[in-house]
C-alpha cells in the first residue's frame, strides 16, 4: 500500500486572518505555521485565498434513490465538493422514502462509494412522509448511518400529537426534528408569497403566517417536552422574531436560512419564470433584511442550501404546474459572501461558524465542523473572495440546471476542497 499523498497549503488566510501554511497528512492537519515543508508533499499556493473548515450542509436533496434523472449521490456530492462542502445531510423525501434503516444505510453507503463528500442521511419522521405514524426512528439512529436528524421535509409534520411524539422519541439518542414549517390548510395550492403582488399576478398566496404559526407551535412543543427542534428554511421576518423569542427563553431551538432567501425577493415572480418557484417562496425585501440580520446576530444558526434539483421537464413549464425548488450547492458560498460578508454583516470566522461548525453541531457530527488547528480532521476549503464569475447553468456539475442565478455575476470561487486531506476539488475543478 502506497503512502497517502501529503499537501502543504502555502500562505492561506485562515478564517480571513494572517497567511499561514497547513500541512495535510494522514487525514489530519498535521501542522500549522509559517515556512512549512515536507518531503514529497505537493505544494498548493494559497496566496490571497481564505481557508475555511469544510462546509457542512444540513439540507440537501440528492434525489437517489428514485429520481436519478434529477440527481444522484455521485453528481450531487460532486456539486457539493465544488461548492466547498465536505459533508451534506441528504433529505428523506426519496423514492422509496428514507424511513427505514435499510434505506438510510443505502444512501450512506452510496456516499462512501462516491467519495466526494460525506453523506449523512436524514431519516423521515413519519412512514412514507404520510404524517400518520412515526417511522422507525430508533432503528435509523442505531443503523450504520447513525441518523440524528429527522425530517419530513417537503411536507410539514402538521399533526401536533405526532410532532410531540417525535420530539419525545428522538431525545433517547440526542436526535433533532427538523421541521418544514408549513401549515397545510393555509397553503393549499399556494404558488408564491402572499401579498399585493400575488393578487396582481393571479397566483395563489403562501402567507407568512402559515410558516410562523407552525414554528411558534413547535417551539412550544419542544420546550414542553424538553427536546431539540430545528426549523428548516426560515423565510419571514416574523419567523426570525419567533425563533429569537424561543432562544431568549433558553429553549433548544435552532434555525436555518437558505442562500436564495438571503438574496432574492418575490418581485422575481413577476417574470412568471418558474425558476424562481420555491418552497417556502421568495419573500419581500423586508423579510430578506430580517433574515440577514438574524443570521448576523446568531438567531438564525446556519445557512443550509435546500439544494433541490429538478430535470428540465419539471421546471420548463408554466408556473402553476412547475416543481418547487432550485439548486444551490455550488453557489452557496458566493451568495453568502455577497449578502453577508461584502455587506459587513459577517466576517469569515462568522461564515465558518454558520456553514460548518453549527450545522455539524446540530447534526451531532463529531469529525466535521472542527476548527482549523493541528490535529484536527483535514477538511479544508480554499476560497478566492476576490474572484468573480457569471453563472452559466451549463457549467454546473449537478445533473440538474435549475439555478435562479443564470447570467448573474457572483463573487468568489472555491479553488480547492480537501476531505480528510485528500483533494476533491483542485484548481477549481474536480480532483
Ligand atoms: Zn428541502
Automatic annotation (TrEMBL):
Cofactor(s) of this protein: Zn(2+)
GO cellular component assignments: cytoplasm
Binding site for substrate: 61-63, 93, 279, 310, 324-325
Pfam families noted in UniProt: DHOase
GO MF annotations in UniProt: allantoinase activity; dihydroorotase activity; zinc ion binding
Record keyword Zinc present: yes
Domain Dihydroorotase catalytic: 50-237
Active-site positions on this chain: 306
Gene Ontology BP term (one): purine nucleobase catabolic process
Protein name, entry field: Dihydroorotase
Organism from which the protein derives: Nocardioides mesophilus
Amino acid at each position: 500500500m502506497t503512502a497517502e499523498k501529503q499537501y502543504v497549503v502555502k500562505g492561506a488566510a485562515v478564517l480571513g486572518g494572517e497567511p499561514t501554511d497547513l500541512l495535510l497528512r494522514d487525514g489530519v492537519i498535521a501542522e500549522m505555521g509559517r515556512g512549512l515543508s515536507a518531503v514529497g508533499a505537493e505544494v498548493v499556493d494559497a496566496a490571497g485565498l481564505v481557508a475555511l473548515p469544510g462546509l457542512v450542509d444540513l439540507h440537501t436533496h440528492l434525489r437517489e434513490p428514485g429520481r436519478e434523472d434529477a440527481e444522484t449521490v455521485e453528481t450531487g456530492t460532486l456539486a457539493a465538493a465544488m461548492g466547498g462542502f465536505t459533508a451534506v445531510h441528504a433529505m428523506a423525501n426519496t423514492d422509496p422514502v428514507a424511513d427505514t434503516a435499510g434505506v438510510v444505510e443505502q444512501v450512506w453507503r452510496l456516499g462512501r462509494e462516491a467519495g466526494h463528500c460525506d453523506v449523512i442521511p436524514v431519516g423521515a419522521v413519519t412512514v412514507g412522509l404520510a404524517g400518520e405514524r412515526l417511522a422507525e426512528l430508533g432503528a435509523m439512529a442505531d443503523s450504520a448511518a447513525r441518523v440524528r436528524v429527522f425530517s419530513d421535509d417537503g411536507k410539514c409534520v402538521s399533526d401536533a400529537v405526532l410532532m410531540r411524539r417525535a420530539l419525545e422519541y428522538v431525545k433517547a439518542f440526542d436526535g433533532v426534528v427538523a421541521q418544514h414549517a408549513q401549515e397545510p390548510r393555509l397553503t393549499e395550492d399556494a404558488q408564491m408569497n402572499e401579498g399585493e403582488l400575488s393578487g396582481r399576478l393571479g397566483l395563489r398566496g403562501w402567507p407568512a403566517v402559515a410558516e410562523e404559526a407552525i414554528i411558534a407551535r413547535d417551539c412550544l412543543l419542544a420546550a414542553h417536552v424538553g427536546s431539540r427542534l430545528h426549523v428548516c428554511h426560515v423565510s419571514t421576518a416574523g419567523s426570525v422574531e419567533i425563533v429569537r423569542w424561543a432562544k431568549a427563553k433558553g429553549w433548544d431551538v435552532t434555525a436555518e436560512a437558505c442562500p436564495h432567501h438571503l438574496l432574492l425577493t418575490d418581485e422575481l415572480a413577476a417574470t412568471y419564470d418558474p425558476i424562481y418557484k420555491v418552497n417556502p417562496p421568495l419573500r419581500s425585501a423586508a423579510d430578506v433584511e430580517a433574515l440577514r440580520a438574524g443570521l448576523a446576530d446568531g438567531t438564525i444558526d446556519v445557512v443550509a442550501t435546500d439544494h433541490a434539483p429538478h430535470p428540465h421537464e419539471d421546471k420548463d413549464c408554466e408556473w402553476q404546474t412547475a416543481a418547487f425548488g432550485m439548486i444551490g450547492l455550488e453557489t452557496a458560498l458566493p451568495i453568502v459572501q455577497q449578502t453577508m460578508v461584502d455587506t459587513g454583516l459577517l466576517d469569515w470566522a462568522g461564515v465558518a461558524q454558520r456553514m460548518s461548525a453549527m450545522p455539524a453541531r446540530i447534526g451531532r457530527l463529531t469529525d466535521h465542523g472542527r476548527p482549523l488547528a493541528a490535529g484536527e480532521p483535514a477538511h479544508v476549503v480554499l476560497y478566492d473572495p476576490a474572484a468573480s464569475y457569471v453563472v452559466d447553468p451549463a457549467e454546473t456539475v449537478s445533473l440538474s440546471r435549475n439555478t435562479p442565478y443564470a447570467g448573474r455575476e457572483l463573487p468568489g470561487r472555491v479553488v480547492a476542497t480537501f476531505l480528510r486531506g485528500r483533494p476533491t476539488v483542485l484548481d477549481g475543478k474536480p480532483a
